[in-house]
Write a structure and sequence with these properties.
413 residues, alpha/beta, Dihydrodipicolinate Reductase, domain 2, eight-stranded mixed beta sheet, six-stranded parallel beta sheet, 11 helices, globular
Length: 413
């Protein structure tokens, strides 16, 4: 995507809407009409604010090594979705030496054309349902609206194709989680959720230390995703408007699941109604009043976690966390008893692909998915991990309406 995008204020100016008028559009279900205007208003002008997480990020790569191409084969990939965040082209599939992007799709013709151009692909389809029927395609990256992830992933699997998907795995539905888990298991195909925190420098280092038994037992972990919302960001059918914070928990919960491969067994969630005029339970389809939800969780190893998501706190943005273990602590760096630590820098990527945004995670997620197919193995953030990151948030939101009552979390193993 373009590295510079319009700020909300400039967008409103460009399309001739005041902040109040845009809020009215969203509240009355008409915001979809201005989404295409947002696309047209995007600009390369320097100094414009980048969408949080999408700026190319300095990341800790082991530069003493070079990426070695083990396979000559190119996986034929289809990409679906080029919305306001332009996710479809943001993860570098089009730049990976073992990928050929053979077709793209978006419901909006202008976006579909933009995605095709960004991915250097000539074949387009008007919908995911059309694209998945292309027998040439082996794998699909689903970058559609969050409420459609489970449905779209299942449709891809039905047509015998591997699938990668933007976060979260499902949107607020435990039934969808069960059905998606069964669909992936039945298919025998690779599923990977593109959780960016899994390839943050710190989480990669934590996971490496954990797998090398340098951390010991994880007693306590915490993660947070604090993304200040000062207006309605356009989204397909307004799915972002008033979204419960804990429906989007994976950037935080990855600070345990993507370190240990474990899960959460119980959750109690405290919450606070939003002070923002943009999060009003009478004006969103979720009837959600909360702008901040903080979950306290029991882990599968008997440890404890705190995972928080908030739309209401200006200040330091993004995703971050820590772990405290029997052999040491990792909070930015390792401090503890273990010696002779393994290499904690991330491995090199193909020279043609960038680490990208969200903590320099984009390229690593794509490379992991493609390598998992070529090497005929499960990818890192497989269906079990994906649901064990997503589902605790759904249960946490239920707990928030029950004044923090402890609730059991379904397990996906």
């Amino acid at each position: 995507m373009n590295k510079e995008n319009v700020t909300r204020r400039n967008f409103l100016k460009n399309v001739g809407l005041s902040a109040g008028a845009f809020g009215l559009f969203a509240a009355t279900g008409k915001a979809e009409k201005v989404i295409q205007q947002l696309d047209k208003a995007k600009t390369k002008e320097k100094g414009k604010k980048v969408i949080q997480g999408f700026d190319d990020t300095k990341t800790n790569i082991d530069t003493s090594k070079k990426w070695i191409q083990k396979f000559d084969r190119k996986i034929k990939v289809g990409i679906v979705g080029y919305g306001a965040c332009q996710f479809g082209a943001a993860f570098g599939f089009q730049d990976h030496p073992n990928v050929e992007v053979v077709a793209v799709s978006d419901l909006f013709p202008d976006r579909c054309a933009g995605l095709a151009k960004a991915c250097r692909c000539s074949k387009t389809y008007p919908s995911l349902e059309k694209l998945v029927k292309d027998d040439q395609i082996e794998a699909v990256f689903v970058a559609t609206d969050a409420p459609s992830h489970a449905k779209h992933v299942t449709e891809v699997l039905k047509h015998g194709k591997h699938v990668a998907c933007a976060v979260p795995a499902v949107w607020g539905s435990l039934e969808d989680a069960d059905n998606l888990f069964k669909a992936v298991k039945k298919s025998g195909l690779n599923y990977m959720m593109f959780e960016t925190s899994a390839y943050h420098d710190d989480v990669y280092a934590m996971r490496t230390l954990y797998n090398a038994d340098k951390l010991g037992d994880i007693l306590y972990s915490e993660g947070e995703y604090f993304h200040y919302v000062d207006g309605f960001f356009p989204s397909y059918k307004n799915w972002r408007v008033g979204a419960p914070p804990m429906f989007y928990p994976t950037h935080a919960t990855a600070y345990y699941v993507a370190v240990s491969g474990g899960s959460f067994t119980k959750v109690a969630c405290l919450s606070k109604p939003s002070i923002s005029k943009f999060i009003n339970p009478k004006k969103n389809s979720y009837k959600n009043p909360f702008g901040t939800e903080i979950a306290f969780l029991e882990t599968n190893n008997g440890g404890m976690s705190r995972m928080g998501v908030s739309w209401d706190t200006p200040g330091h943005p993004g995703e971050r966390g820590l772990i405290r273990c029997t052999k040491g602590t990792f909070q930015g760096t390792f401090q503890g008893l273990s010696k002779n630590l393994p290499e904690l820098r991330k491995p090199p990527l193909p020279p043609t692909i960038s680490s990208g945004g969200h903590g320099g995670s984009h390229g690593h997620l794509t490379n992991e998915f493609i390598m998992s197919i070529l090497e005929k193995r499960k990818p890192l953030v497989n269906i079990g991990w994906a649901l064990n990151m997503t589902v605790p948030g759904i249960v946490a939101h239920k707990s928030a309406f029950k004044n923090g009552e402890w609730l059991k979390v379904p397990q996906f193993l």
